[in-house]
Amino acid sequence: SKLILRGLNGDFRSGQLTAILGPVTGATGTIATNGEPRDLRQFRKLSRYIMQQDLLQPYITVEEIIQLLRLGKARNTTAERLSGGEKKRLSVALELLNNPPVVFLDEPTTGLDDVASSTCVSLLKRVARGGRTVVCSLHTPSARLFAEFDHVYVVADGRCAYQGTSAGVVPFLNELQLPCPRTYNPADFILEVSSGEYGVHADRMVAAVENGRNQRWRDFAVESAFEEMEIEQLNAGGVEKHNYKHGSTACQQFLVLLKRMLLQTARNKMGYDASKTIFNFGFCYACVIAMLYIPMMPVLLAYEVQLVKREYFNRWYGLKPYYAALVVSRTPATIFFSLIYLVITYPLTSQPMEGPRIAMFTTICIMVALISESMGTAEHLVIAESIEKMIESWQTSRKRQEPFLVLGEGSNVLFLEDFAGTVMINQLKGIAITEDEDYWYLHVGSGENWQDLVCHTLEHGIAGLENLALIPGLVGSAPIQNIGAYGVELKNVCSYVNMLNLITGSIERIPALQCGFGYRESIFKHQFRLGYIIVSVGLHLAKQWSPNLVYGDLAKLDMKTVNPRLVFDTVCAMRRSKLPDPHKMGNAGSFFKNPVVEAIKCAELIAKYSTMPHYPQQNGQMKLAAGWLIDHCGLKGYRIGGAEVHHQQALVLVNVDKATSQDIVFLARHVRNTVAERFGLWLEPENSVFLGPALSVPLMLLAVYGIGSGDDPLPIVWRLARACSFLRYGIEGLVAAIYGAPREDLICPDDVDYCEYKNVDLFLEFMSGIRFDFDFRIVIIQILVSKYRLDQFPY
Ligand SMILES: Cc1cc2nc3c(=O)[nH]c(=O)nc-3n(C[C@H](O)[C@H](O)[C@H](O)COP(=O)(O)OP(=O)(O)OC[C@H]3O[C@@H](n4cnc5c(N)ncnc54)[C@H](O)[C@@H]3O)c2cc1C
User: Fold this and answer.
1) How many whole angstroms separate alpha carbon 314 and alpha carbon 630?
2) Residue 30 in domain
3) Predicted pLDDT at 688
4) Confidence (pLDDT) at 650
5) Is residue 575 among the annotated active site residues?
6) 670-685: per-residue pLDDT in tens?
7) Is 659 in the same domain as 776?
8) Measured in angstroms, how far is the CA atom of residue 479 from the centroid of ligand 1?
9) For the packed helices 760-768 and 716-723, what is the interaxial angle rounded to 10 degrees?
10) Over 90: is that where the pLDDT of 2 sits?
11) Based on the domain organization, do 102 and 230 belong to the same domain?
12) Catalytic: 159?
C-alpha cells in the first residue's frame, strides 16, 4: 500500500470551475466525509464523472440522442464522426441531463486543439455558474486556459502546494521568492517548482498554504461580476432541483434503451464494411467455437460413458452398432442446430447475401461441427478382462497417438470434458487365498470390487479389512492413494503390488515397503503413473485378530465381546449415516486431504481456535481435520450451480442438481480460497485425477495462434503445427467465403487502415503467413471428417 494523499485539505465550491494540477497516481482506499466513511451510493447519485476518453454510442446520431433525451435539437451526424471537441461537449451535455450538483472531469481538454479546448472550458464555466461544483484534473493547460479557472488546487507529493485563484499563482510564488519569468506559463511554472525542478520548495509551499487550510488566495483578484452572478445563480435554485432518483420510469428507460439498441444493431453493417474486417474475423472465430460446442451438448448431458460401460459390459450390444447408431442419430440434430445458429447470425452481422458465399459458409460450419463431434466423447472404450487385451489396446492407442486412461470404477476421477482417447476399464478378476500358521495370504485381481473383497474375506472367517468397508472402487485402485478409513490403511495389510509394464509387457512385483505408502500417497501416483497398470494386489491378514477401535462409534464397542462382523456393521452404519451414497447423490467422497502442518502453525491456530481437532504425527507434524476447517468457514450447504458442500459432512462435495464439472471445480476453488483466507492453509484435493479438455481447446488455441504476427512471421514449426488444426481451416475457410471473391458492395473508407483486407489473401497472410487455396482446405476438411468418422469403428 502507498499513501497518496497526506493530510491535505481543500474545498471545491459550487458555482466555481476548479482545476486540480499535479501528479496523483491511481490507488484504492477509503474516503471519509466529515470524518465519517463516505456513503458511496449517495455520492454516486450526487456526482457525475466524465472520463478522458469519450465513450459514446457509435451508431446513434446526435439528433437521435437529443430526441430520445427530449432536448429538442436536431443534428445529423453519427456520434463516431463528431470532432473531439464536439464529443467532449456531448459527453458533458449527456451527463448534465440529470442535473448533478457535482461534476468531475478527467483531463477534459486532452486531445483537443486550442479553440476546442477554450470552447469546452467556457462551457464548463457556464455549467459551474449554474451553481454546480465542477472539478477538472489537468496536466499542462495553456496560460490562456489556465486563467479561465476560478480555483486552482496544486497537489505535490500528496499534499496541497497551492489553493487559490489562477490569478493568485504568480503573487503567491513571488512571496516565496520564486518569481515566475514574465513570458512563462504560470501553470507550468508552479508545477515545475512543486515537483522540485528548481530545488526543494514543495515543503515551503505546503507550509504557506497550511496544506490547504489557508484560504488567503481563494479570493485573490476574483471578478466581482462573477461573485454577483454566483450568488444570483445559486439563489435561482437551479441545482436544488437535482434528482437523486432517475427522472423516468423503468418502463420508459427500457423503451428508450431498446430503441437505441435496435437502431445500433440495424446500423452496424459489419459484414458490409471493409474497415470492420478484423471484427468480422472475430465473428468467424465465434462461429467456429459455436460449431465446436453445439455437438458436444448432448454428449455432456447424456452421461454417455457410464451408460455404455454398463450396457456393453452386460452384453446388451456390440460397440460397432452402438457407434453407428450414435453417429446416425446425432448428425441430423447437429446439422439442424448449426443451421439455426447460422440463419440467425449470418444476416444479423450483415454478411453478403450471395448464394455461393452462403453455401460455402454453411458447408464449412457444418463440417467443423461434424469433426468436432467426433473429437468429443471417449473415442474408444475397452473393457479388459485379460492382460493380453490390456497390452493390445495400449499398443493400438499408441499407434493412433491417442491418450490412454485406465479406469477402475471412476469414483476418483472428475471429467472436465470428454476424453478423446482410449478408456480402458479394468475387469481382471480372481481371488486366491493361501495360509500359514499366522497369516492368510490373498492374491486379488485388480478388477475386483473392494467392498466385495471385504465381504468375501468376512464370509471366509478372515478378519482385518472390516474398517475399510464400503470404500467405493476396485482393488487395483486401492494402492494408488493408499485407501484408508477409521484408523486402518491399505499399507497395514498390503504385501505387494503387481504391475504390468506396458512397454515391455512384463509383470513387475513391487513389495509393500517400496510402494512409498503415505497419507493418500504412493509411488503409483508419481513414478508409476504412466505406462503401468496394476494387475493384482497381495494382502496378508493376521489370524490373530487385533481390532482397531479408535475412531467414532467403534470406540464405544466392548473390547471383550467385539468381533469382525460387528466392526464391519458399525463402520457401514457410520459411513451410511455420514456420507451420502454416491449411487443416490453423486459425490467423490472426501474431496480434500486433511492438511498436515508444522507444530508451530498448529499451535498458532489452536491459540485462536481452541476446539480445533488436531492429531500428532510420527514426524512431529500435526494433521488437522479438513472437514472441521471447511465447516468453520460456514461453508456447509454452500452451493455453486448444481454442486454443494454436503450439509452434514463438509469434506464431501455433492452433486445435488445436475452439477457440471465446472460447478465442482468452482466450488472446490471457492472452498480452498475461503479456508486459505481464514486459516492460512491451502487444502489439496484428494481426487487425484482431473481430466482436462483433451483436444478441442488446444486445437482452438492453435487455430488462432500468431494472429496479427504477419509482419514478424512465426517460426515454421509453429506455422505447420497451427496448420494441423482443423479449426484453422474452418476460420480461414469462413474468411475466404465472405471476402474471397471481389465484392462491389464492400464499403471501404479511404482513411481506414484495415481496408487492405478487402483483399482476402493479404488478410490471411497477415493472420498466418501461410496461404492455402480454398479448394485445398476443403479437401483437408473432407479427409479429416472421413478419418475421424472411420476411426470411430475400430472393432
Ligand atoms: C463416496 C465415496 C467415499 C470414499 N471414501 C473413501 C475413504 O473413506 N477412504 C479412501 O481412501 N478413499 C475414499 N474414497 C475414494 C475412492 O473410493 C478411492 O480412491 C478408490 O480407490 C477409487 O477407486 P476407483 O476404482 O473408483 O478408481 P478410479 O476413480 O477409477 O481411478 C482412480 C485413479 O487410479 C487410476 N487407476 C485405476 N485403476 C488402475 C489400475 N489398475 N492401474 C493403474 N492405475 C489405475 C486411474 O487412472 C485414476 O487415475 C471415496 C470415494 C467416494 C466416491
Assistant:
1) 41
2) yes
3) 46
4) 87
5) no
6) 898 899 889 988 887 7
7) no
8) 9
9) 120
10) no
11) yes
12) no
